[in-house]
Amino acid sequence: MSLLDFLRPRPKNTANIARERLRIIVAQERATRGGPDYLPLLRNELLEVIRKYVHVGAEAVQINVERSNDGEVLELSVALPETGAATGTGG
Amino acid sequence: MTETIVITSGKGGVGKTTTSASLATGLAQRGHKTAVIDFDVGLRNLDLIMGCERRVVYDFVNVIQNEATLKQALIRDKRHDNLYVLAASQTRDKDALTQEGVGRVLDELKQDGFDYIVCDSPAGIEKGAHLAMYFSDRAVVVVNPEVSSVRDSDRILGLLSSKTQRAEKGQGGGTQHLLLTRYNPVRVEAGEMMSVGDVEEILGIPVLGVIPESENVLAASNSGVPVIHDAGSIAGQAYADAVARLLGEDVAMRFLDAPKKGFFKRMFGT
Fold first, then answer.
1. ipTM value
2. Residues 6 or more apart from B112 whose CB is under 8 A from it?
3. What is the DSSP string of B147-211?
4. Of B161, B194, B160, B159, whose CA–CA distance to B180 is shortest?
5. CB–CB contact A11 B192 (8 Å)
6. Which of B242, B260, B189 lies closest to B7, judged by CA?
7. CA–CA gap between residue B177 and residue B250 (Å, rounded)
8. Do B147 and A1 touch (CB under 8 A)?
9. What pLDDT, in 10s, does the model give residues B129-165?
10. Contact B150 A21 (CB under 8 A)
11. Which of B74, B103, B229, B266 could serve as a FRET partner for B257 with CA atoms 20 to 30 Å apart?
């Protein structure tokens, strides 16, 4: 960092943005990997239905397929905002 | 005992062929009989990077379709007589590769006493990429510290864990390694590029090597000499380190930090 750099506007730390975006999308894609093809669609439709009632962000609905000896379990989790009027993260 | 290693990535242009050429050369330099196979039918390039493009007479598809013997198609490297290149066909379409045929060629290489078979995968997740990984024991996933490359690598890691012969037999997905290429420590320090740690954490598999961005990589491909031969370049040294780690040696990572600037440069430099 040179002295002259303080005079220029600092660029954003885009590496951090990249890392956070990848964390979310990779986790999402892993959760539905190997599962039925309809999972991403199911997730989106659920999100739409939930949004009729509560304002939640795109990451609010998580879908997981767990395999056990007895078969497959579809696990859904919906994170609701802390207060009724909370804002979603959009997307 | 032969080990089959696939060099793959999902995304194109990240350095699969450069990596295949240098890792195969490095394994041969360390005394292992090695074959490197180009699976990119229709877009052959390994021959150029290995500098043997004018010596290709028969190719992989010729061998699969019994139009040539494996012995006729294997091109012996100019510099190492325990290193052989099997070129991809430039004229056939991708369906020329069959699972049975690829398996047969790999079995023949195993019987010929090869220690390592390096499979240079095409980009994408289509047939060529599938067959390049199908018979592998180990995978080197080449990744650039950039969003689309990292995401595609994760997709490939998923396929490696489910769509290989080992996985189908219930033997697990085999060993997986990450190899970062085009790494620029100066940009990482400036917060403009994800770090090795970031990529390793997102993808969750260990890093085999980090190849710094270097002008010597282009110079090497220009001249058809794998960059690992350029022992004076940091990219060549980083590949040599990766080969050592591939062979199980414990070698510390190098070239991860930006060169330290002097006082004057820190004050007034760029």
1. 0.85
2. B70
3. HHHHHHHHHHHHHHHHSSHHHHTTS-S-EEEEEEEEE-HHHHHTTSS--HHHHHHHH-S-EEEEE
4. B194
5. yes
6. B242
7. 15
8. no
9. 999 999 999 999 999 999 999 999 999 999 998 889 9
10. no
11. B229
